[in-house]
Amino acid sequence: MNTHPAIPAVSILARSPNLDAAAIETVVTLPTFRRPEHLLRTLDSLVSQEGAPPFAVIVMENDDEGRAGASACLPMFESRHVGGVLVVAHERGNCSAYNAGWATALRCFPTLKRLVVIDDDEIAEPTWLARMVGAETRLGVDIVGGPQVPVFAHEADARLARHPVFAPPYVATQRVPALYSSGNLLVTARVLAAMPQPHLDTRFNFLGGGDSDFLSRAAARGFRLGWCAEARVMETVPSRRTEGDWIRARAIRNGVISTLVERRKRQDQALGRLIVAGRSLALLAMSPLRGIPLAFKTGLASAYPYPGLVAAGRLMAEFGYMNEQYREPEKN
User: Contact, 186 vs 225, CB < 8 A?
Assistant: First the structure.
């Protein structure tokens, strides 16, 4: 095991034989944590990409003790079935895993032009990567997001795809003012070079939202954002995430993240904290009116409380509440 001195808390476990790193301009990063079976399915979907430019894959194992994902996919790297690098991100947490992969990409691939992200509970459609890269050029943007289409274990839960917890923020390919998730994302090397490292704030490691914070900061620096509706990944949704208490907790968590991200955005304003709290109170007051059209639009009674739960989460964050859903992965 070779510990990389230039990348703290990262070990390189394997590098594909005869990998020509200097010829690779596109790198797909794939964090994994205790999903070895699904990780292999995700990797198979990457190997099956059609029309994509030459690319390498970096898998970031984030379970430093068990390493089930690394053990499962190691033969794929050693046999050159997957071209790229397998690393262990020793510091536990979502943001730490991303930072390890992104830093590895910058160091190991000197001609890197873009970095693309997929998670280990997702399956890429065959034209996913080609569409993401195409949208970068066609829209003239620096960052591209795409839909994470939920795939539910039970057909009866499919209606939840319309719930705001699962629904994508946009429906058409276009330039957009904001992006919120890294689960299906392209980031150009010029963004990575301009943004300070570590790229994702590790205070969000177990809360989530480090990606939303990073994207907000990148937009504030003037980087252009786009959405590619055709570049889909299919996200496997476990039954646990269809339960009412999980959905309510996720809505509250979204509110907490919203406050933390907006607070950072306004940190240099004299009345920034008051403005953030005032907006939260206004959103809470308006939430009953906002919930009605949302319930009618989605056809889901469970969507009605969503605006109120988000507003409540925003206010709870003012008192230090942190809903760290990723702290106990077996409950997430």
Answer: no
In this predicted structure, what is the pLDDT of residue 108? 96
Phi and psi based region of residue 207 (left: phi greater than 0; alpha: psi -120 to 50; beta: remaining): alpha
SS3 176: strand
In the predicted model, is pLDDT for residue 197 greater than 80?
yes
Helix and strand numbers (H, E) in the chain are: 9, 13
User: Is 309 in a helix, a strand, or coil?
Assistant: helix
Amino acid 8: pLDDT: 59
Residue with the two structure tokens 């730490």? 96
Label residue 320 left, alpha or beta by phi (over 0 means left) and psi (-120 to 50 means alpha): left
Q: Check residue 6 and give its pLDDT.
A: 43
What residue type is 239 in one-letter code? S
pLDDT tens-place string over residues 71-90: 999 999 999 899 999 999 99
Predicted local distance difference test score (pLDDT) of residue 4? 42
d(CA 168, CA 186): 16
- Stretch 9-14: mean pLDDT, rounded? 93
Burial of 224 (0-12, 13-18, 19+ CB in 10 A): middle
**What is the Cα–Cα distance from 9 to 232, expressed in whole angstroms?**
32
Quick one: tokens of 281? Answer: 């109170």
Question: How many CA atoms lie less than 13 Å away from 246 in the CB half-sphere?
Answer: 17
Q: So what CATH class is 2-239?
A: alpha beta
What is the per-residue pLDDT across 131-155, written as a single tens digit (0 to 9) for each? 999 999 999 999 999 999 999 999 9
At 19, list the tokens.
Answer: 């990998």
Cβ atoms of 111 and 23 within 8 Å: the answer is yes
Please report, for the chain, the start and end positions of each structural domain, with discontinuous segments joined by +.
2-239, 244-331
Task: Check if the beta carbon of residue 327 is closer than 8 Å to that of residue 209.
Answer: no
Contacts of 209 (CB under 8 A, 6+ apart): 253, 256, 257, 260, 261
Q: Where are the beta strands (DSSP E) in 90-165?
A: 114-118, 122-124, 143-145, 148-152
